[in-house]
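I am still learning, so can you show me any protein sequence you like together with the matching structure tokens, please?
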Amino acid sequence: MSALKGQIELAAAMVEEKIKTNNYKKSSNELALGALQSEIFAAKGRVDELEKSLEADRKKLQDAVKLVEEHADARTGLEKELAASANLLVRAESLATKFEERASVAKNAMNEDFAIAELMKEKDKFGIIGLVHDLITWDRTYERPVLAAGSEWMKAFVVDDIKSMILMAAYAKERKLPRLKIIPLDVVSRFKQNQDVPRDDVNVIGRLSDFVHSDYGRLPEFLFSETLLVRNSSSAFMLAKQSYRTVSAEGELFEPAVGSMSLDFGGKITDMRKAILFGDSVEDLREMLAKLSKTTEKKSAQLQEISERMVVSDAEKIKLEFGISNVENKIASELETSSGKEKSMSQFASNNQILQSEADILTMELCKYSRRLELLTPAIDRLSSRLRSIGDEPSSKSELAVKTLQRSQIIKAIDTTNIELGQVTSMLGGFEGRLELDMRQLCEMDGEKDRLALELEQRCHQIEELGNKSQSLEAELKTLRDQEQQTIDSSGNAYGVLQEYERKIKALSENERKLSKEHSIIERESALLKKDITDLTTEEARQTNDLVWLGYKNLLDEMDIGAAIKELTDEYEGVKSRINLRADEAYVQVIEGYRGMSTRRNQLESERNSIVSFIEEIVKEKEKVFMEAFQRVDGDIRNTFEKMTGGAAWLEIENPVDIFSSGVMLLVRFPGKTVPRESTALSGGEKTIAATVFLLALQSLKPSPFYLLDEVDAHLDAQNTERLSKVLLERSRDNQIIMVTLKDSTVSKAALIYGVYPKEGLSQVVKYKNPAQVPLAQISENKA
């Protein structure tokens, strides 16, 4: 029974030890599970932060891409605008040069067209209705006689009345305009014809005024009623002998009594008003071109700035893409680590369930062993009592003692073995827990190793890409440095090259001006030729009608032009072999060279304009500083002179238009005098006052520490001396004034007086402080 009880107790102890081991494993798994949960929670937090950072970086990347696109669009737009501006500048420059030359020629001519252009600018002011050739019309058949008879009046002004005529004459005299003619309508309305038309001469067509029309009724009669229109020059000559003013249909004008004769077979009315008025428009166009050039320079600077911004944005874009790639790799690594830890958590949970079931089974076995011990204990007690009754015998006692000793030794050995077994079991549980942790860490390290290997591969790939980019950038940098060095080397002789280009530009400009002038002359000649052709055609038709009217029904036979055509054909065949067939290629090369030089000329013109604008800014600043100083000195002169004399004095610039090419006048008007005079025309005393006032006015501009005056009041009377001394006393508050004087009124105003007198051939000095001018505080201090 005792052995059975010992076995049961041993089994119960083993079960208890297993329960402890299971509890230890369970607690270890729960700790590991908590650590994994905290790690997974931290990993999820890091993933959330990385995702937020990734979202922010992606948004920045989108903004950067959008910014790059906007910069690209802006750069494209600016490039188009600059190209359009350059073309516009070239075309406008050529047009401006063309019309400027015309306007210059027209203005330099200083003919009546210049006076017309000047007066037509203020048409309403002078009551100008228009010019004669604009207010009348005539039959095209009799254009030549009309122009011949009215050549002196075609450019005359037509005004409302005599008052307007006088006003225009005064203005023309003031402006020194060239000659002009003026017709007042109130005089025209009172005009009456004085001469009759000879009715018995068949060659007289009629009064020339009958073939001229105007909305201003009597204007044609005023101009042409005394001129007779005849068919031929001989009739005109004969009638002119009879004191008639005649003109033939061909344009031959005879004055009365054949006093003079004028011819007009192809003339026309020249109108250079537009060319003259174009001068102002050309100047405005030049100003607009300068502004457009400055705007183009600003656009070029903006284009350069946008290019630099694009480079920065591209670098920022590459940086963001690299950062996004790193963040995505980190997120993938964190997610992979979290999934591994979640798997480990599921394993720990399943292990805990298994340990819990084993713990339940062991608890049940322990309860079973406890119940058996409860049943065996009373039986053992009964057997023990019986054994004690039996053991009263000596032999039984000795055997019982031996058995008891053996039993105790066995129980002790069993206890020792159970203790060792429990220790080994606990150590084994610890080792198993450590082994599981190590295995888990090993799995994590394998995952980390794979992630690091992937990241290493990506970094190596990025290093290769960056290395390639760095090589290309180094090559580009080397090229740019070479270009910079070339630019630096070429900038040394840039001035000589610039001077050479300036000379070429001047030559090209002169050539262009000559070509423009020749082109204008050719256009004018072409227009004249077209006009002559039209006139000849009209004349041919008129002559044909006259011939038909005179009875010639059929025209003369035309000459045979076959021989002329043959001669011209032979001449053409002879010239054809000498024509340069490569002239068009040479023309293209010349045009391309001209365009290149024009572009360079525009660039140099822009640089010259910037230099000129810089010089103009300096001149404006100089003028501003001068005028501020001038106004300051002028105001001080006005105030001081008025206080001193009660009169007026001021400064005037001799030439206000160009202030630096002339001098400054000091004008003075003393009380009782109405006409101001210059300082050079004043008397001695007046000059003294004016000079002293001017000197004191200069003190306001640039004060000096002291002023030394030598008997400036010598030529002044008592009243002016008193006034001068008061002004000097007032000015001595800010500056020290040392004055040599013999006037008592001046000496009485001084604070410190030095007297000089001779004694025994030597100069003696007396010093005296005037109590009236010494401050009271200083007097009290001296008495103390």
Remarks:
- The longest strand covers residues 752-759.
- Residues 104-111, 275-279, 779-784 have pLDDT under 50 and may be disordered.
- The CA atoms of residues 424 and 640 lie 122 Å apart.
- The chain has three domains: 2-85+280-472, 115-271, 629-783.
